[in-house]
Amino acid sequence: MSQNSTDMPSLKLRRVGIDTYKENVAYLHRDCPVYRSEGFQALSKIEIHKVANGNPVIAVLNVVDDESITALDQLGLSEQVYRQLDVPDGTEVFISHATPPTSLKSVHRKISGERLAYKEYLDIVSDIVNSRYSKIEIAAFLVGCSETGMEREEVLNLTRAMVDTGERIDWGGHQVSDKHCIGGIPGNRTTMIVVPIVAAHGMLMPKTSSRAITSPAGTADTMEVLAFVEHSQENLREILTKERAFIAWGGTANLAPADDMLISVERPLSMDSIGQMVASILSKKIAAGATHLLIDIPVGPTAKIRNSSDGLKLRKVFEYVGDKMGLHTEVILTDGSQPIGNGVGPVLETIDIMKVLENDPAASLELREKALQLAGRIIEFDFDVRGGQGYIIARDILESGRALEKMNAIIDAQGRNPNPLTLGILRHDVVAMESGIIKGIDNLKIASIARLAGAPMDKGAGVYIHKKIGDTVSQGMVLLSIYAEFNADFNFAIALAEKESSFTLESHE
């Protein structure tokens, strides 16, 4: 280690093979002279320079006592920050105390319940994107927005800031359609049916999707069962030109990158506040080049939105922000009283999807019907289609096999997953404790069971729902099956399922 002419201490860089997921983390040994002499402290932020006084990369400092991790003359870097610095092991790097981001003052104001302007949100989001915030500070921002609320103008300001701090895709002036469901309903995997139908009609539908935040699977998690979902913008453009659509993970394209960093904190906190949700969805769609967007808001007693009144309020926020951002936005309220398909979890949902596309008589009628309704609405974005004709066109495309053909073409273009579809090797059936008619299914409990079983990280884990609302069941009849890969997850899921039923039964006497 040495001191250069600027008195900025230097250390040898060491790559530490730890994935800190969307957070820059650096490591110093507790007995490192620089750590002692410069007054660095654990969890403080440091600036790391390739050359003295060069543009820094900022990281949160962790302190270690094991020289096999980081020696006394080394600065260890997690994978996240190592990729950003982009220099080989052993390179001399310079470190200094990081200046606290001035935008934290605005976070404190938000926590106090004050409204923030666009410039304040832009400063906050810029600092987040540039890793000036630790995850603790990001959590404070998220909680401030969630607990004190965001007026629609603030949601617009945050959306604009998230778009302006990332890249935007331009599809050459073409009409570009997209759809999004706000989530909360297990088995609601309509996108992978809608996209090939719309593409087969000839419309552009480049679908960039997130991975699951609080659910057992996101569209990207499920599509990954069938095909590769991580592609460069160049690859995606080639796929779109050839097939009119793709279904890919949006995290590789640097589209509204703050959203992915916010999600990395929201996921472990199981947070999904309304303002953040609207900004997250619309910023991604706008950055991805969408011109026309359909939003699906499921409404039900155990959905994210519990009643139509709240659904209508949310619709107004979506439409207001979308309009102000130049995005044609239509919002529909749908039935969220129970899971849509039968499968919950990536592999199980993929099986449901392919049954619908294959026109299998055993396919979920609820999933098929909802997908057709949504596809029909999007097809009506086509200026040559009269209102009310979209559903008929969508149904004809599905029943003719053109949707399945298009889906297979999209999968081939993205690259088929070479691993076969496999369900979790462990299975447990949950049976009815009494006879009766099913009057309710708790979406939240179903999702929780599936997540405890290992979904979406374990693609074959999840829940298969055998009975739906209105079905008559006898005592001992199977209501749902739990699938898991590992015993610990399996036992947790079973314990939750048996602690309190996800089904409400009413005697048919």
Description of the structure:
The mean pLDDT is 93. The chain has a six-stranded mixed β-barrel with strand order 2-6-3-5-4-7. Strands 13-16-18-14 form a four-stranded antiparallel sheet. A three-stranded parallel sheet has the order 8-11-12, with helices on both faces. The protein has four domains: 96 residues, Barwin-like endoglucanases (Beta Barrel); 46 residues, no CATH class; 220 residues, Pyrimidine Nucleoside Phosphorylase, Chain A, domain 2, CATH 3.40.1030.10; 81 residues, Pyrimidine nucleoside phosphorylase-like, C-terminal domain (Aldehyde Oxidoreductase, domain 3), CATH 3.90.1170.30. It contains 18 helices and 19 strands. It is globular. It is an alpha/beta fold and 509 residues long. The chain is 40% helix and 19% strand.
Could you name the key traits of this structure?
Pyrimidine Nucleoside Phosphorylase, Chain A, domain 2; 40% helix; 4-stranded antiparallel β-sheet; Barwin-like endoglucanases; 4 domains; 509 residues; 6-stranded mixed beta barrel; alpha/beta
CATH-derived architecture of the largest domain = 3-Layer(aba) Sandwich
Tally of strands: 19
Shape: globular
Largest beta sheet, briefly? 6 strands, mixed, barrel
Number of helices: 18
* Strand order within the widest beta sheet: 2-6-3-5-4-7
CATH fold node name of the largest domain: Pyrimidine Nucleoside Phosphorylase, Chain A, domain 2
Beta-strand residue percentage: 15-25%
What class do helices, strands and sheet pairing give? Answer: alpha/beta
The H-level CATH homologous superfamily of the largest domain, spelled out, is Nucleoside phosphorylase/phosphoribosyltransferase catalytic domain
Overall helicity: 40-55%
Straight-line N-to-C gap: 82 Å
Q: Mean pLDDT score, rounded?
A: 93
Q: How much is the radius of gyration in Å?
A: 25 Å
Which spans of ≥5 residues are poorly predicted at pLDDT below 50? none
What is the CATH first-level class name of the largest domain? Answer: Alpha Beta
Number of domains: 4
